[in-house]
Amino acid sequence: MPTLRQKIEQEIRERGPIPFSRYMELCLYDLEHGYYSRNAEQLGKAGDFYTSSDVHKVFGRLLARQFEEMWRALGSSEHIDLIEFGPGRGLFAQDVLDWSEKKFPDFFYALRYVLVESSPALRARLNETLADRIKSGKAVCVKSTEILSAEQIGKGTTSVVPNRSQKQGALAPEVPTIVFANEFFDAFPVEVLSTKGSLRIDARDGRFVETWAQASPEELEFLDRYSVHPEALERIEAHLAAKQFMDRIAANIPRGFFIAIDYGYTREEQLAGRHRGTLKAIRQHSISADPYEAPGEQDITADVNFTALAAATERQGMQAHKLVTQSQFLMGIGEANQFADAFEECRLPQERAKVALQLKHLVTPAGMGESFQVLIASKGVGQEKVSELAGLSFGRDPTRE
Ligand SMILES: C[S@@+](CC[C@H](N)C(=O)[O-])C[C@H]1O[C@@H](n2cnc3c(N)ncnc32)[C@H](O)[C@@H]1O
To answer: Residue 81 falls within a domain, yes or no?
Structure first.
């Protein structure tokens, strides 16, 4: 079987130099050798990176609290679909389902949890981890192609979720929906631009080499609207695939909320000189200088352009709300009961001290609190209901940024 390097070289021989986004797509999602396809072990504390749910269950518990409040803002509907994109190993889903069942039984009764995962290896793992939830019909696990078809774009009248009474893949009539994505958009392939144009990857003498092609009108429009143009020696990413995917998600939310949590920035921050070139390869918890080394064995990410995501939600009839940091968001949800969700099982002072440190890591600027941002958008929900959401209570006003 050819290696991923050989596969990419073959594609370059057939097509000529490929866009960086295609190279990144193959490295992450090639069905045999892609980083997310090979096996599910790279994720988590022992792997290349860990996410908030690896730190402590309180992340999912606080979000369960926020989802329940959103459900009430949507009129405590008989059914609600919570759709998580890129659930990975499903830790977050488990925490949300367990906590909702324990603390918010009415919400849990109305809830169906839809896991949308592109990696077959991770879907297999989700089907095992959440076997009981899936068997009881509380959760379903699907590919994004099963729920986001191109024909639906712009109609906005059908839910993205499979019909409760039918097999997976069919569309439901309007059911309020909460879409959630944690560290999802940073794993989308990006275009890379410099003053020389748009990055292409060529193969020579067994090595990948960078060449440049003229930037496309779409890439230039992306920079004009949502980002900045690169200066000499700079590289700037254009998130065309993420923008398109966001359009599709937002178009398919009939009524409800969208929440994305990720490393990211706004155009204003780029104009202030920050986040100009954020592409990284990550292996064994350290940043690798070379995205062309060991294709498929290292993660490749780019910080999320929240200005482009927010604009996509608004194009599809949603209202994007003030961006908050993960610190502000979690503090807003947890302060009312002094983060009791974190300490529920602690019996001894040492246990409380350990959990307090984990919570601190999620919330403080030195941990994940300031590097992660939270974008919330809503459709068909009154402004006063949205502004009462606990997670937005510490927010800043984007018009004053
Ligand atoms: C960085 S991981 C984040 C995992 C998880 N959300 C967490 O916080 O631990 C990104 C996940 O998104 C999945 N993914 C990427 N593109 C996708 C797509 N188009 N549809 C569904 N899942 C996708 C990847 O396979 C991977 O599981």
So the answer is: yes
